[in-house]
Amino acid sequence: MDSRDGVVYTETVVHAPPEQYAADAPYQLAIIDLDSGGRLTVRILGKTLAERAQIGDRVTFIEERNGVAYCQRSLT
Amino acid sequence: MRPVAVIGIGKTPFGAFPGRDLRSLAVEAVGNALLDANVAARAVEAFYLGNFAGPSFVGQNHLAPYVGTAAGFEGIPCTRFEDACASSGSAFFHAWQAVAAGVYDVVVAAGVEKMTSQTTPRVTEILAGAGDMAGEGRAGATFPALFAMIARRHMHQFGTTREQLAAVAVKNHANGAKNPLAHMRKVITLEQALAGKPIADPLTVYDCSLISDGAAAVVIAPLDQARRYTSQFAKVLAVAQTSDYVALDNKSDITFFPAVQSAGLKAYAMAGVSPKDIEFAELHDCFTIAEIIASEDLGFVEKGNGGPFAAAGCSAIGGRIPINTSGGLKSKGHPVGATGVGQVCDVVMQLRGDAGERQVARHRLGLTENLGGSGATCVVSILEAA
Fold this sequence. Notes:
The structure holds 2 protein chains of 2 kinds.
Chain A: E1 6-14, E2 27-34, E3 39-44, E4 58-65, E5 68-73
Chain B: E1 4-11, H1 22-37, E2 46-50, H2 54-58, H3 63-70, E3 78-81, H4 87-100, E4 107-114, H5 120-128, H6 136-139, H7 143-158, H8 162-176, H9 190-194, E5 198-200, E6 203-204, E7 213-222, H10 226-229, E8 234-243, H11 258-271, E9 280-282, H12 288-297, H13 306-311, H14 328-331, H15 339-352, E10 365-372, E11 377-385
Parallel strand pairs in B: 2-3, 2-4, 9-10
Antiparallel strand pairs in B: 1-7, 1-8, 4-7, 5-6, 8-11, 10-11
Helix pairs in contact in B: 1-3, 4-15, 8-12
């Protein structure tokens, strides 16, 4: 378990990115309720609908890139 | 504190004006307001200019004296106010304070933004700077993304629907089509709004305000001097400015804006009125969900019922409380720094009975709500007909 695992509080898929993230779009952002307390804005990994996370879904921390946490929807 | 009046209003059209620079827009709005107030530029004692990102959009800093000298002000204090999309709301608040406190008699509050000379991805990036760039911004949050996350949560908790969001866009476009100064004078259908290009789910392009150029200005003075200048003044019953966290993930509940609620409560108390007394309002519909939440936060409708309220036509012209008769940021346009003072101009036009085709029947008491970022600044004003 990582301190950045948690549950999705809210989310969106960004289709119109800022200039610096143009290559990433579309990408999913979520604010998660951390198991360790507090909230964090993270990226959700994956491009397919099945990989998207919804409010209430558990997400697992995968890695950090440039100070941003990337999480994945938990399978269980 | 002494009572204050708006004695003159001036706006440029809002739109995309490739041939116009920031300064010429601001000077035009200030000139129109001075003319409307019958006040000479040399009689103005201080200049408060709202602007969000002139340095990023057009590469110009030191904007207040840059505009002020061109507008004919000589040697007076000229200061720029930056509070994201509430920049000129903040300029208006500080200008009102100075006159109410007796520091000055005649001052000008204005706002300007020149946005359309940049590409949309670049504009999106500059606007994102109104959020927390070390956190949500670094993760890739745009402003549509932040409000999309707010909308998702509001839908989840209160059952707000895509159709209710779209109803706000349809209403505001219908109003804007009647406003000669609006950016997009185009009526849209619910089907069109629902089928718009996705920007940040669940928001489509029709849920988002426009990227615009434009400026707005007001002249204010002590109420007991207003008649010296004009018979068409409006009384400023209250102006309240409040603040909250910049980062959305710092808030415990994102389905309301604490800054809007507290600015509303302060303004109602100062004016000695309650939400049911307000006859019409200009609310900050940077995104359709923002108008829905503001209508709840200001007490026009019960928490969670803002969506059904809009979809039932309660906020249309002719409805219980007409909201954004100007077309709002959605259709009138959203030159960020000009929006707060622009709202004051639009309310004053209604109070005077000068709103033409979009004139509301009851126009004695109006309210403006100007929101900065995802709710970190709010300015609420309540104005009354002379």
